[in-house]
Amino acid sequence: MVKKDEFFKLEKLLSSVRTNTSNLSIKIFTNWIKNTKVVAVPFTFIYGQPSTGKTFLVKKVIENVELNLKNTNRGNRFSFVDVIQCFNQKLMFETIINQFKKREYKFEKKYLSSLEDAKTEIFEVQNLETRIDDFNEFVFSLNNLVDLHAADSLSSRYIVRIIDNAQILLSWGRNCNILRALPKIYEMTKKKFGVVLISNQTFDNFQDITNTFNLTNFVHFKNFTKDEMLAILLKEKPYDVKDDNLYLIYLNLIIESYEKGCRDLRELRYISKMLFEKYIDPVKNGKILECETFKLHKNFEKTLESFGSSLYLRDISSLEWENRLKKEKVDIEETRLLKYRDQQENGLSLELPYYSKFLLFASFLASFNPPKFDQRYFTKLGEGKKRTKGTRKSTIANRINPRLLGPKSFPVERMLAIFQSILPCPEESNTSEIQFQIKSLCNLKLLLKIGGLNGGGLDIFKLKCNIGYQQ
């Protein structure tokens, strides 16, 4: 399994695609952020599906604006809050105010020279934290923050509060006034305050509460197309994979398999990282070549089906999945060794069809018995006993066990004749079925083909039995 540090961060990959798009709404938002004198739109609503680069691009725009602004010796124009980390509005208000205060304090402090100074600074920063109970205290703290630096650059700037995952505010209930008050904070303070909400839901769910449709700048992040997703995920190709085409075919297979039930790029990225080791395993073992994409697809189908039922669940971590793959390899190897031991100790245990058992028995008799004894053993009348000269002792002494000499080849006609003689009901046998089962026994290597001219019929080539007496 490819480790996490071998991949780029998802946000960087998103930016490589989104920053090149000519989205008019993003340009409007960027121009509004850069405007330090005129309040263009005090309330901006950014929405789109998860994993479309909303949060990262907003942070990127803010960083670029702060770097390009002049006279940035003091203050911080932006405050970023993730609602997931705030379980109530009191904690969210305190986070916004304390971010500005701590930032101001850091600009005023010089480098510390001793441990005592460091302890003093920690104590002073803790004292800077403001406790806010309601929205009125929040507005009062904002006004004090700007009035305190009336002569500094902070008062001439447009202070922006960015609230990520704003859809969680809807779950706080209609009794929560924060959604009604945040868009109107500019009217309440008459200061250069702006609010940016980032949400996975559309503005229709917020409009009944905020009632600020005319004062809102909308920025919509559209879903990634298939080509964009392939371009992003291809940049996360593992370093040990040299062929881009192989990984591109794999990503295309993942997206086509799950795009109907999942358009989340983070989830597709997670799946592609988890399953690639399973996909490439036959290539590493030498069973399938890289160019044999159809065989790779067929070998990978069961894994795709089993993993499709756990989309978004993430019921197994990447480490557990890696351990499971290692355990499967060990189990397969142990099973193979156990089968080999069973075959060596107890012989081959294979359930064969009815006629195949008699065919195998007939081939064994044909391989280990001389043809001259067929009439004696397999005909009803048999042959008369012939008197031969010589002593019986010398004949027995010179006789060698046929099993020690190994199996001998025989024509197919002889095996079929023995088969008909030992079969309980030979009249019920089907010729086409018997020929098919002879071919199956050859494929199983229970019978070996010795001869045959240009793949001729059954009456040309010879066979040899490939099983022992114990089997």
Which key features would you list for this structure?
471 residues, alpha/beta, Rossmann fold, five-stranded parallel β-sheet, three-stranded antiparallel β-sheet, 8 strands, 52% helix, 8% strand
Question: Could you write a compact summary of the structure shown?
Answer:
This protein has helices at 10-18, 24-34, 54-68, 89-108, 115-128, 135-148, 178-181, 185-189, 204-210, 226-234, 244-258, 265-285, 293-308, 318-346, 354-368, 374-378, 392-398, 402-405, 412-422, 431-443, and strands at residues 43-48, 78-82, 159-164, 193-199, 216-221, 410-411, 447-449, 462-465. The protein has 471 residues and is an alpha/beta fold.
How many distinct folded domains? 3
Mind telling me which CATH architecture of the largest domain this is? 3-Layer(aba) Sandwich
Class per helix and strand makeup: alpha/beta
Characterize the main sheet. Answer: 5 strands, parallel
InterPro entries: ORC5, ORC5_C, ORC5_lid, P-loop_NTPase
Subcellular location: Nucleus
GO molecular function: DNA replication origin binding
Protein name: Origin recognition complex subunit 5
